[in-house]
Every structure is written in structure tokens, then in C-alpha cells.
Amino acid sequence: MPSATDSKKSIIGLRIGQSYSSIAIINKDGRADCIANEDGERQIPTLVAFAGEEELAGTQAKALLLSNSKNTISQFRNFIGKSFAECNSSVIKGTAQLVDKDGIPAYSVEFMNQESIFTVQEITTKYITSLRESAENFLGQPVTGVVLAIPTYFTDSQRLALKDATEKAGLRVLQLINEPTAAILTYESGIKSEEYNNNLHNDRTALILDLGSDSLDVTVMSIRSGMFTILATTHDPDLGGAAFDDLLVNHFVNEFKRKTQIDILQNKRALVKLRNAVEITKKTLSSSSTSPCSVESLADGIDFHGSINRTRFEIMSNKLFTRILDVISNTLKENNLDTQLIDEVILVGGASRIPKLQSKLRDTFNNTITVIRQDFEPDEVVAYGCAFQGDLIGDLDDQMISDSIDSSVTLVPHLSKPIGILNAENNFVVIIPGNTPLPARRIFQSSNMFDDQKKFYVPIWEGDIIVPKPSSQTDNNLENDSTLQERPNLSPVKLLAELVLTDLPEKKINELKVDITIEIDINQKCIILAKELTSNKSVEIEIQITQ
Amino acid sequence: MSQSHLVLGVPPSSWDESLSFKIHCGISEGVIRNIEPVGRYFLAHARRKLNNHSFSEDEHIQAEANAKKLEVIHDEDSEDETPELLSRDPKDWKEQDHYAILGLSKYRWEATDEQIKQAHRKKVLKHHPDKKASSGNTNDDGFFKCIQKAYEILSDPVKRRQFDSVDEAIDDTPPSAKAKGDFFEIYSPVFEREARFSNKTPVPMLGDINTIKSEVEAFYDFCRDDKRYIERKNKAERARYKKEDNIRLRKIIDQALSLDPRIQKFKQEEKAAKEAKKKEKEDAIKNAKEAAQRAAEEERLKKEQAEAEAKLKQQEEKKEKANKKKMIRNERKSIKTHLKTHNYFYPPNEPPPLDVIEMQLSELDFLFEKLSLEDLQNVRKQLDSTQDRHDANQILVKEASRLVSSGVLPMDSVKYFKSDSIDVTENREQKTTDIEEHKVIEETPKERPWEVEEISLLIKAANKFPGGSLNRISEYVADHSGLPSRTNEELIKKSKEVQKGTIALDENDVRKLQHQKKHADTRITEHPSMREATIDYDAIAASTVNGSSTSANNTNTWAPAQQAQLERALQAYPPSWKGEGDRWDKIAEAVENKTKKECKLRVKYLAEQVKAKKAAQST
Ligand SMILES: Nc1ncnc2c1ncn2[C@@H]1O[C@H](COP(=O)(O)OP(=O)(O)OP(=O)(O)O)[C@@H](O)[C@H]1O
Ligand SMILES: [Mg+2]
């Protein structure tokens, strides 16, 4: 909770997307919120443009996409920190020329009446400067620090380059964090610390599906007592909102041709116009069942007015949905994961708002366990997470931050199998789930089975996941899915140790309180303590990994 | 979660009583992975890791550090913490007096946010479990939890209002109706106290004796339909409470209303004002009605009179017009009869060709258009007075040339009357098209009639190139009109006419020109092809020679160059041509990219256009 002394501190969370970026802050009430730029937009187009003597960025630069496209730079984010040879310039759509400047990708534009070359790095700095200014206009004070989100697939040199560009834009970079991690942090920040203290560790496995403008990122993340570990991540570089735009562009190109006999497929300018228009059409289709598409003077001075309904759009998008689902199932398969092991699917990225995607996901995660969530605006949730992290570490000094995020701290063994206790009814109760980072310590309270129970038996087991095989016709049988599929079972597989307490005070059923503490250190040495709270009677053992 | 409750039994019967534990094997080897370095739980992990502390060591250090901070602060002026208060069970938070827990009993709903914050801080520091933990006293954080709950409720504006709305520690019984004393002194605090329930803020105040009526009314209105927070454990109880509360509040309002001295005053004022207004309104309505009736009557009379006059005048005019029309018709008929009598100027025993008759009659109609009744009478009288077909012919030709020379008629509009044209009879057996075609050939080398557009272009060019060479002007006109270029003589002549202002364009032409100019000014650049696309005002001009904006192999399209070639070819191979082979083959040869058939069609088309143009002008 921010205290009164925090007023001097103003830290922002920043997400730079390939097409849109967002700036988030933490409000007085402790909630994250995005701030709008001077043009009132919370999703700020990732564009820079040069017009005469002026440099423009964001919404204003996007406005020039049509009239001054050769001096407008878009889709540059993914080139940062790459060499020219590594840049796939076919990605660029009719904007400023990407050129090779001593092996570094750069753009050639006309600025101040002469040809100028700006490296991707410089462009990024210009863009981030404009974001900083927007934030400062809003806050009425300088930004004191920023936490930046980066795609998981960014290489180290890309991370460094983005950090460098941000610092050149006049911002103190507190930390870079992975986009899906930022998203999860947002979902997690609603959880109060007492809940962890009360043993509600909220352990779960989430699949974060980020469908952005140009890419699809699938990340499987385990969440253990508020700590996050990425188990798997896949990146598909050309499956995003733009792919849906392509379908719509195609559709309307054909419609226009049918109506007017004019083919605009080779007409770059007309295509840019249409592409701008269909993005709006597509967004509208996420909330209405039909959506118009109008372009004034599309070609030869002829206006275009078309419309499309959602069903039609869904039918033509079917291939894309299938591709998205394939990426998900491959990611799971390659990592020996099953859909039933995913507790939550978290939707991130603007294009994840497409309603059909959610119903398709529901069909894929055809079980009673997985919850599909979009509690936060999918294109803001990443920036929120950055802002939360900024709020948390804003007071720490740089040394402390860099020590903390050093790999010697972050790179640790994780428990490979769950550890738990077989209770009086022979059920395996997990105390520490698999994938928990070490060291770990958890305390569990247990009680007696009957009145005046003088002895207490604590068998410690290591378990494993047994996924129930779905019965043969499950796939098409939607009505009965809840009865056909069950929660995956965790079964005790290996007995690690047994502990026994004797001569306990006489208590009524359920009134004896025995705390069981399991602590596993970094060397995977396991200490188990069982202690009765009124008599302080206890047993403690130590298990070495080699045993 | 299901696993939060763990029930354990006794060891199996095979268990060796002497043992308190048995170790079987170690845990499976872990997998090295990267923790995402975010969130406070990661920070705690990093702190332990960097300091090389175990969980319990770290906890101990943290607790000590917190306890030290806590000791610095002690509180004065605080409410007593009774043992009863300190032993409250946090589970019963719904019954808890949050203000008492934070030591704010005497402020209650009046406590400011800042007071609540401060009070919470103090209590936290005093009762923090870490402080107790460091002194070895564990598991006693009940009161601390009470504090957290109290703060959670009171720091949240919504929850706080819910709590305030049912705060039983407040005396909310209405004052006695018979209470003596100043109305405002008694009721102001009552309403202020009620305001804390209000969902809407700011809440209006009761005011004093001088408060204006609208504000007093607004105040009572607000109290009446104020939506208020009511928070009770269950729905039934909430409903019951709400009902009770409504009754109580209504009682307060009713009582206040009946006692409020301002209300009495307002009622009397209102009554008097109403009466006065009513009378005023009635009078106004009556007056307005009468005035409206009067005005309507006057209006009606005026209109009737005007209508009658207009009708009369119209009838007269109509009659006169009809008369004149009739006379004109008669005169025209007589002239035509004369023409017939004179065998269309052909020798008496030679029947004139049908197309000549037709052309003469259409030219005559054309001429008629320009002649007034007097002119017609004049011509008819002259014709009446002669028997000779040549004289008759002269009369008409003279009349026509009079019109031509005064600029009313184009130069060549009446050549069929000319007797010399009648004498051309050598190709009498030729088809009609040939005669017309012949006409086209004949007029081209003389002077093609000036199109309206050309004249306007000429004016423009003259302005554009003052003193410029004729060639330049000619080129400009040709380029922009898409028509064949003019000879220098033609240009000079026309320019002079233009300068002298003797070019008289008829009304239609002027309109066309204006229209064309408007379009040209707003949309058209100096681009001939674009002009083509936009000017469709004059079918004749455009079709005489078509520009080349559309593709060249379109048979309907004749480029100016092609047109010129055609014209030259027609001259070179007139119908009278006696050379070898078909004359149309020769003509087609001379025109680029055009077949014989296309050339024929073109000539036919042009002839039709000339005819159509005349017809159009004469209607
Ligand atoms: N309501 C909506 N319905 C459908 N698509 C939407 C909606 N809102 C935004 N989008 C699409 O989401 C995409 C932008 O999402 P986002 O901002 O997450 O992408 P990005 O981060 O810029 O791209 P990337 O993740 O590829 O770098 C665009 O393609 C946009 O059209
Ligand atoms: Mg993105």
C-alpha cells in the first residue's frame, strides 16, 4: 500500500507492442490504470513519423500513415537489437524504407528537407520519449522510473538495446520483465498476503495466451506462493490480429472488385486505407454481430461501403483459430502437459477479444478444471503488471535491484514431484506441489481423528500426477463433459518417511492441533517437523537427497 | 481448498513402538529453472538468498526490525483499550464496533479519513504480531486482525458508509414534535446526522429562515428520495431495517415540514402568486385568441382579392398569348405554303427530292424561331406579292442573311434556300446520306461553326496570352476543346468579333458557358482528358469530335487527328470522285486505325449530328 511519503515517487509501467503501446500507473487506491496520451488514447500506436520539420509519434504519427507513408515508421519494435541481416524487411507494409547502416537496421526518411537516416535504436528512443512526455503531462511531474515489458522471445541483445533506448529517452529503467509475467503479476496482485499466511497458496498453473497484432505467444507458467516460473513458451511470429485483418482486406477487395470491376490488389495506397478501416471493422465485430466497413475514395475516387457479419468473419477465420489451437496443443504436448493440468487460461493481447477464440478455447479445454479468464483489459494487463512491479521496487536502490534479479538468485532447482501426506482416509494431501522453487517451506495444520487420540501418525509421500484417461466418446459429447472428466489425480508414489507423535494431551475430536512443517532447502535437503501446539511435543527429521 | 483440513490417525499396528520416525528415501531430484523476478514473494526469496538466511532466520530478523520501529512510537490521548475490547474474536467482525477498535468512538461517522489512517497506524504499531513474536508471544494476533478488519471497512468509502448507515451507537430518534425552541436549532443537527446515510453527495443543508424557496424545496426533495445505504447481515433483516428506517425518516421529514416556518410562508406566497398568474394567463390567452382571429380574417380577405386579380390577369395574358401564337402559326403556315407553291424553288415540273424538302422545311423552322410576328408578317406579305420562285427565294435568303449579319443566326444556317445549292443536281440519284455527307465536306474547308466552348476558350486564350501568337492561341483552343484547330484567318476573324463584342451568344449558350465555366473553375485543371470526363453539357460539341480519354481501339472514339484525317480524305475523295476502286477504301486508308466501316459510320453519324443540332436549336 503506498504511503503518504510516496507522492514524490512516480513510476510507470510500460509495454511497447509491435503495433500499440501502453503506459500504466498505480492509483492512490492501489489499483493499476492506463493513462491516455494527449489524443485521449490508452492504446498508443507504435509509430514515429517525420513531417517537414516535425517529428511525430503515436496517434499523430499514425494519422500520417496515408498521406506521408514514406516518412512514417511502424513495426520497428521487433528489429531493435538485431543486425540488418536478421531483419525480415518483408514484414514492413508500405512505410519508410529499411536500410542497412553499417550492418545496423535503420530507416531512411525525409526530414528538414533532406534525406536522413535514423537507426531503429534512435527511432525507439524518439518513440519512448514521446511516451515519457505523455506520462509526465498526465502526472504533472517527472517520471522517476520505469518497468518495461519485453516479449519472452527477445534475445539478450534485444533486451539490452531496448533498455538502452529507454534510458536515452530520459527514463530510469528499474527492471525489464517478461510480458506474460507482467500479466500474471496483475492477476496475482489482487491476492492479499494473509491468504498466503492462511495456507491458501493459490498454487496453480496458468497458460497465458497473448494474441497481439503480429504474433502469438503461448506461455505456461506455474504459480507457487506468489512466485512465478515459466515452464514453456512458444512464439509464432505471424499469427496475430493482423492475420485477421488480412482476411478482411481480402474479403473487401473482392467485394469492391465485384461492385466496381476495379482491382486494388496492386494499389498500395488503397490497401493501406482499407487495412486501416478493416481493423476497426474487426474490433467492432467483437462486440456487435455485424459491422460496416467504409472507405472514402478507395480507388478512382470511388467510395466503398461494405459490411460483414460476425458469423461470416468467424467462418473465414476458422483456419486461424485452428492454427492458434495447434500452437497451444503442441506447446502442451512438447512439455508433457495435459489440458487438464492447466488451471487457468489467461487471455492477453488485443486480438484475444475476438469472441469466437474464447469459445474455441473452451472446446479445447473441454474439462471442469480450466477457467478461461480475461478479468483485465487484455491490451492493458501487461502494462499494469509493470506498474505493480515498479510500485514494489521503486524505493529500492539500483544495486539492490540488480542483485535481486541476478541469475544466482533466480536460477534455482524446482521441486520435480509433489510432496504430501497420506491422511486417515488414505487420501494424498499435497503440502508442496511440484514445480515449487526451492528453498521452500510450508506449514500445514492437522488435527485428530477421534477423541483422546494419544498418538499421531504422519506418513510423508512423494506423489505424481495421474491424468484420468477421458472415456472414448468424450470429444464430441459436450453435454456430459462435466461427468466424464475429472480433476487429475495426484497419487502417492514413493514413501519418503513416517513420523509418529506419542503421549499427546487428551483432546476432543478435531481439537488437537499439530503443525506439520516441511522445509526443503536449495540443496534439496528436506526437513520435516511435526509439533503439537499445546504440549509442544514434536518430532523433527532430515532427509538428504542422496538417501 | 480441500487440503486445508488435514485429519491424521494413529500409526499402523505394525509400527515399532520404540521409533518416532522412519526415513525411507530422499526426494526426487529437482529441475533447475528460472524464477520470474517479480512480486513481493520473489523479493522475500531474493532477500533470503542474498543474506543466506533460512526462512526462520529471515522471519526473526524481519520481526526484530519491525519491533524496533514500533517501539519508537507511543500514543497519547488514546481511548482506553478495555480487556473486553482486546479479547474480541476477529471472526465476529460483523458485530464489531470498528470505531471503538481504532479508538475513535467519540468521532464515529464524523471521523476524517486522515484520523482513521492515523489511528490505524498507531494501533498497528502497537499490536503488530511481529512485536509479540519477538518477545516470544506467538499466535495471539486476534486483536491485530480486528484492527485490520476495522481499517479495511473504514478506509473504504463504500464499506464505511454501509457501516455508518447502521451504526447503532448513534441516537437517531426524531426530536419530539412538541419540543420548544428555534426550529432551525433543533432540526439542523438532526438532518446533518441523517446525511451520513446518503448515497449522493454533497447533501443539501436545512438552511435558515432566509433560505430561498427553491433551496428549501430541493432540500426536502432530496431527503425524501435519498437512496440510502443499509447494510444488514441478511436480506430479510435488511428489508425490515430499511422499512423501519424509511418510516423513521419520513416521520422526521413530515414533522419538520409541518413545523418549518418557511413552508407556511411559502405556501401563502405561492397561493397568491398562483392566483395572479392564473388570471394573467387567462387574460393573455383571451387576448391572443382575439388577435389571432382578427389577423386571420384580414389575411383571408387580402388573399382572396389578390387571387381574383391574378386570375383575371392570367386569363387575359393567356388569351393574348394564344392569339399571338395562333397568328404566328398562321403566318408560318402561309410561308410554308408559299414555299410549296414555288415547288421549293425547283423548276415547276421538276419534283424536288424529299430530303431537300425536308431540309428546307427544317431550315425554315429554324429561321422561324428567330422571327417575331411582325417579321413573319413582313416576309409573308413580300411573298404574297410575287409569283416568281427566284424572287420568293431571294426574299427568304435576304431575311436569313439579315439575321446572320445581326448575329442572331449562324453563318450557314440557311443555305438550302439558296438557289445555287438547288442547282447542284448531278448526283440526284445518290442516296440521302451522300447529300448530307457532301454538305459536311463542303462546309469544313469554309468555316466550321464555332462551338460555344471554343469561343469561351478563345476568350480565355486571348486573356492568357495577350498579344500571343495566333498559333499559340489556336493550339490552346484546339487542345482544350478537342476540336480540330482553326486556320489563322478564322481565328483572327473570330478574335476581332470577340473583341468588338459582336459575338452574340444566345441565352442557351450563355447558360451553357456559365455552367461549363463553373465546372471548369472548380474541378478542372488544364488537362484535356480530365475535361472530357467532366464536361458532358453539350452532346453536339462533344460528339463532333470526341477526345481520346478512353482507349484508342474503341470504335466510337475519334481522336482529333483522326477526325482531321477523315475530313481531309473526304475532301480528296468527294462523292464525285472517279478514280480507281472504292472511294471509301481510299478514305479509310487515309485515316489511322479506322476501318472503312468505321469511317462510313462516322460520316453518317456526323451528318445526323448536324441535323440533330439544327433540330435541337429550332425547338
Ligand atoms: N476489440 C478487439 N477485437 C479484435 N481485435 C482487437 C480488438 N482490440 C484490439 N484488437 C487487435 O489487437 C491487436 C493489438 O493488440 P496488442 O496491442 O496486444 O498488440 P501488440 O502488442 O502491439 O502486438 P505484438 O504483441 O504482436 O507485439 C491489433 O491487431 C488490434 O486490431
Ligand atoms: Mg503484445
Give a quick precis of the structure.
The complex is a heterodimer of chains A (547) and B (619). Chain A contains 13 helices and 28 strands.
Shape of chain A: elongated
CATH 2nd-level architecture of the largest domain in chain A = 2-Layer Sandwich
| Largest interchain contact | A-B, 91 and 47 residues
- What is the assembly state of the chains in this entry? heterodimer
Helix content of chain B: 55-70%
Largest sheet geometry of chain A: 6 strands, mixed
The CATH superfamily of one domain in chain B is known as: Ribosome-associated complex head domain
Question: What characteristic shape of chain B results from the CA principal axes?
Answer: elongated
What's the level 1 CATH class of the largest domain in chain A?
Answer: Alpha Beta
Give the C-alpha Rg of chain B: 56 Å
Structural class of chain B, please?
A: mainly alpha
CATH architecture classification of one domain in chain B? Orthogonal Bundle
N- and C-termini, Cα separation of chain A: 45 Å
Strand content of chain B: under 5%
CATH topology name of one domain in chain B, in short, is: Helicase, Ruva Protein, domain 3
* Strand segment count of chain A: 28
**Tally of contiguous helical segments of chain A:** 13
Identify the bound ligands.
adenosine-5'-triphosphate, magnesium ion
Instruction: Kindly name the structural category of chain A.
Output: alpha+beta
The fourth-level CATH homologous superfamily of the largest domain in chain A is ATPase, nucleotide binding domain
Beta-strand portion of chain A reads 25-35%
